[in-house]
Structure formats: C-alpha cells, structure tokens
Amino acid sequence: MPGRRGARYDEMKDKVALVTGGTSGIGLATAAAFAREGAQVVVASRDARRSKAALERIHSEGRASWIACDVTDSRAVERLVARVVADHGRLDYAFNNAGSGGRMTPVAAMSEDAWRRTIDGFLTSVFLCMRHEIPAMLRGGGGVIVNNASVDGLRGYPFPGGAAYAAAKHGVLGLTRSAALENAKTGLRITAICPGWVDTPPVANWRKRDAGVAAEIDRQTPRGRIAAASEIADGVLWLCSDSASFMLGSPLVLDGGYMA
C-alpha cells in the first residue's frame, strides 16, 4: 500500500479546492491530499457529525473548512459555490465526488423512485455542481473540474441491481466529455476519474456482510487487491495538476487492471 507523501505540485499552494462528499472514502482522501499540497480545501457534505472528524483528519495535513450541502438541491449547490468564492475569492479545483442513490434492484423490479433517486444522486448532482462551478472558474481565468465516474461508466454493473448506478455513471462520462469540449479553449479543463473497486466504507461493509461478494470483487481485480482511497486521490490530484495540462474530457481509469 502507498505510504504518506509530501507535497508534489507547487502550483497548488494557496489555490482553492472544493471536494463534495469529502467526509469519507475517496473524497476525504482527496481533500487531505489537496491540503497536503498547500491548497485551501472546502469540503461539502450533508453530514455535520462526520464533518468534525473529517476536518480533524484534513487539518493534520493543512487548511480546510466545511459547508453543508445536498448536491441534489440546485439552490444548495448555487449557495455552496457562491460561498466558496465569497470566502476565498476564487475556485481553482473541484472534485465532484458526492453521490447517493436508491435501493439496488434489478431493472424489472426497480421502482421509479429508486431509479430517480439514483440518477439524481449520481448524475444530476454532477450537472448541478458543474452548472455553477464553470462560471465561477471562468470568472477567475480557469481551473480544473474532475468528476467521479467509476469503471461502471464503462461497463455494465457486475452484480444484479446496479443498472441505475451504471446508467448514472455512463451519464457522468457523457456529461464530462461534452462540457470539456464546450470549454476546451477557455482555460478550463474538465475530466473524470474512473475508479475500480476501492476500499471505502460502503465497499468494506459489503465485503464483510457477504464473503461471496468479497471473493468475486477480488477475482475481478487482476492487481490482486482493491485500491486504497489514497491511490484514487493521487489520480485526482494529477488530473488537477499542470502535469495533466493536455488531459481534457477523457477519463483516467484506475482499476487495478479490471478493464484491461
């Protein structure tokens, strides 16, 4: 597993990074990584209780604050981005990571409510964030947006019940590519990351509950283990860095060989 690293991207010092869903898993690891680079990090999430522990973790690396936001609520997202700009004067990086959904059910048995909750939680939320982040970044001369898509945006979901999630993640990639082309000459870069199986709390809990699922997840990953959240965070930071200046629209796939 990767160990703790120091700062690598000097250009991130004193920049402003927004991470939605930043209180656990990939979001928390990414927020901490931005802070380590010297960025001022703003974490957005719905859970005030988790935010305290998350900020303590991020503060061990650098500067961070928290803003309550439900990313499926258009007005809440508008207020979030406006407050980031009001508090810090700019928005340089955004990692649209937050997501939530309805109950996982096979298509023939899925309720419309479960479908809509999943599409809103994982796709509409990204649209709402970009809708407000893009103008804010353009006013500041540019920036980078990274959307969390998943390898399930490149394939069908590998277990029964994940069709709505996969549909949402396919949509995130279509949205990312289209918005990237719209802004290709503006100084704003938009791209996505496609993680495979990652050791996040939901995945860890699922693996503990079902030994068969755990074995199948391991089998699906040629690397022989699932990713640590910090490994995905490293990918997000690279996409945001000047080293990825020609990375536009296309996703970065970090899956331990799954899609190979």
Question: How far apart lie the N and C ends?
Answer: 21 Å
Summed over residues and divided by their number, the pLDDT gives a mean of 94
Helix-strand category: alpha/beta
- Describe the strand arrangement of the main beta sheet, using strand numbers: 3-2-1-4-5-6-7
State the CATH class: Alpha Beta
What features would you describe in this structure?
This protein is 45% helix and 15% strand. The protein is of the alpha/beta class and 260 residues long. It has a single domain (11-199, 228-252), classed as NAD(P)-binding Rossmann-like Domain (Rossmann fold, 3-Layer(aba) Sandwich). Helix 2 links the parallel strand 2 (40-45) and strand 3 (63-68). Helix 3 (74-88) runs parallel beside helix 4 and helix 4 (112-139) packs parallel to helix 5.
Keywords summarizing the entry:
260 residues, alpha/beta, Rossmann fold, 7-stranded parallel β-sheet, 7 strands, 45% helix, 15% strand, globular
Spell out the blueprint of helices and strands:
Elements: E1 16-20, H1 25-36, E2 40-45, H2 48-59, E3 63-68, H3 74-88, E4 93-96, H4 112-139, E5 143-148, H5 163-182, E6 188-195, H6 201-209, H7 211-220, H8 229-240, E7 251-254
Parallel strand pairs: 1-2, 1-4, 2-3, 4-5, 5-6, 6-7
Helix pairs in contact: 1-2, 1-8, 3-4, 4-5, 6-7
Summarize the structure.
About 45% of the residues lie in helices and about 15% in strands. It is an alpha/beta fold. Helix 4 packs parallel to helix 5.
